[in-house]
Amino acid sequence: MAHMTSYSSPGPTVGFDLDMTLIDSRPGIRASMLALAERTGTYIDADLAITRLGPPLADELINWFPAEEVPAVADLYREMYPSFAIAATLAMPGAPEAIEAVRAAGGRAVVVTAKYEPNAKLHLAHLGIDADAVIGDLWAEQKAEALRAEGASVYVGDHVGDVRGARVAEALSVAVATGPCDADELRAAGADVVLGDLTEFPRWLSDYLAARA
User: Considering the chain, what percentage of its residues have pLDDT values greater than 90?
Assistant: First the structure.
């Protein structure tokens, strides 16, 4: 049914990344990492970990755990995560309005994230952000699979990995400088548009759609 909606919809389908694009998950992830460290008796520098959000969880855990333990530790982290991370996480400035701008234009807003999908959905539900679809467990170029399947013509993210995903999907890459990558890095990676944050998105979208029309 997703395909039917995307083709009959009068407006664009816009994909959004989650962490540091729609949500500021740093306090929640920091709390979860500290809880994981306590549970496993393993030191984790949680303050360092939250400076490099974006890539898959395993890419962070490999810094603190032997490779053979990472899959089991990742499962434990995901299981513990809702108790520590959901209530502590806030929407990024302009996030609800960005989703609403897509809807107001007759479009669909879909979330494509590397985060474990059930936890991504918990975040959005807690913050009252209502996406048309949520697809998790995809990072960088892998995001193109979901973006293509959903018919997304624009992908909004904060990481150079998001820029790469958009390019592979042949979607316009709109980057927000609210995550670990600054505006220069995002431009160098090939972002088509770089915004300071999502508060600038509704006006950009309006101008973009007017130019296309």
Answer: 95
Entry pTM: 0.95
CA–CA–CA angle 82, 157, 20 (5° rounding): 40
CB 170 within 8 A of CB 151: no
3-state SS track over the chain = CHHHHHHHCCCCEEEECCECCCEECHHHHHHHHHHHHHHHCCCCCHHHHCCCCCCCHHHHHCCCCCHHHHHHHHHHHHHHHHHHHCCCCEECCCHHHHHHHHHHCCCEEEEECCCCHHHHHHHHHHHCCCCCEEECCCCHHHHHHHHHHHCCCEEEECCHHHHHHHHHCCCEEEEECCCCCCHHHHHHCCCCEEECCHHHHHHHHHHHHHHHC
